[in-house]
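Sanity check. The docking grid for magnesium ion depends on where the pocket ends up, so I'm generating a full predicted complex first rather than guessing from homology. Inputs follow.
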Amino acid sequence: MIDEREPDFRIGIGTDIHRLVEERKLMLCGVYVPYPAGLAGHSDGDVGLHAVIDALLGASGMGDIGTLFPDTDDRWKGVDSKELLLIVKERLEEKKWEVINVDLIIHAEEPRLNSVKGQMKRAVAGLLGIDFTAVNVKAKTNEGFGDVGSGQAIAATATALLRKKRRRTL
Ligand code: MG
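Predicted complex below; grid placement will be based on this.
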């Protein structure tokens, strides 16, 4: 039974950062982005999807990506992060959470992501089974500052809003 005192809406935030290394494919929001380096990590290193996952887990009060998919577990070694997001989507459905919108920033000095933002948006919306307009993807450089600015890493920040699905009585 759904507790009527629980709020209808919940907001969550997620961030992630991975190191850029040679001989890895650069995956951002489930989209392959041609570039001479990719993101290191136990999984495919997709910072965009990892930030979205943490925002969704945060909003639903279900913890964080590291607890759900620990990097000490070989099941998640080299895993496609799209699979992780689909698992999280199932958990949200079980708990009757509906995704209202996702907003995402990719922080990268290089490559410039303007030409792939639309694809990333479509990929995230498709994975979550929500309308294209409910996902927003922004790309920012770090103006040369820090590990992102020097091109050593790519980071991401995401927020997500969820609504509890309730049985409406007429
Ligand atoms: Mg990560």
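Relevant for the grid: The chain has one domain: 9-164.
Also worth noting: The pocket of magnesium ion is lined by residues 16, 18, 41, 47, 50 (CB under 6 Å).
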